[in-house]
Amino acid sequence: MSKRIHEIHFNFCPKSKSSAGVRNWINKNYVDLKQLNPRLPFLIRDFEDIEPKVRVYYDFKIVEAPLTNFSEEEVEQKVIEFVQLSDPETHPEDHPYKKTWIRYLDQDNVDGIKGVEDRVVRIN
Questions:
Q1: Percent of the chain at pLDDT exceeding 70
Q2: Does residue 33 carry a pLDDT above 80?
Q3: Domains in the chain: ranges and CATH
Q4: C-alpha dihedral over 94, 100, 106, 110, to 10 degrees?
Q5: Model confidence at 91, in pLDDT bands (50, 70, 90)?
Q6: How far apart are CA 64 and CA 123, in angstroms?
Q7: How many other C-beta atoms can be found within 10 angstroms of the C-beta atom of residue 117?
Q8: How much is the pLDDT for 94?
Q9: Is 0.85 surpassed by the pTM of this model?
Q10: Window from 3-17, 35-49, 90-104 with minimum mean pLDDT
Q11: Contact 63/120 with Cβ under 8 angstroms?
Q12: Distance CA 124, CA 100 (A)
C-alpha cells in the first residue's frame, strides 16, 4: 500500500446481509494485508444495524465510501480505487477527486483545516 495511506477503517454490521460482502472480504484478506503492511493500521469495527463503509486516511485527506450490499469483488475494487487515489498520478485527469487531492497535497499550511469533516470526501 502507499506510504500516503495512514489508516484504513471498515465499519459493518456483524449480522446483516448488507454487510456480508465486507465481512467475507475482511475474513479472506485481513491476514495477508497485515503481513504485507505491518505498520498500516486496519481498524475493523462491527456495530449492530450500521451500514457498511470504508474510510481511508491519507496525508491531508480522508475519503469514505458506503459498501452496502457490495460483493467481495466490489469491496476489493473499492480498496484498489482508494489505493490508487493515494497517488495523484495513478488516476486520470478527469477523476472528480484529483483536483481536491492535489489541493491538499500542495497546501503548505494545514491550519485552515478546522476538523475531520472539512477533510472528508465522500464517494458513492
A1: 69
A2: yes
A3: 7-122 (3.40.30.10)
A4: -170
A5: low
A6: 6
A7: 8
A8: 52
A9: no
A10: 90-104
A11: yes
A12: 16
pLDDT in tens, 51-76: 999 999 987 788 899 999 999 999 99
CA pair distance 116, 121, nearest whole angstrom? 10
Please state, in angstroms and rounded to a whole number, the distance separating the CA atoms of residues 27 and 110.
Answer: 37
Give the span between the Cα atoms of 10 and 65, in whole angstroms: 10
Cα–Cα dist 32/19, whole Å: 21
* Integer Cα distance of 54 and 65 in angstroms: 6
Residues 6+ apart with CB under 8 A from 44: 9, 10, 26, 30
9: β partners = 43, 55
As separate numbers, helices (DSSP H) first and strands (DSSP E) second, the chain gives 4, 5
Count Cβ atoms below 10 Å from residue 58 Cβ, excluding itself. Answer: 20
DSSP code, position 58: -
* pLDDT surpassing 60 at residue 122: no
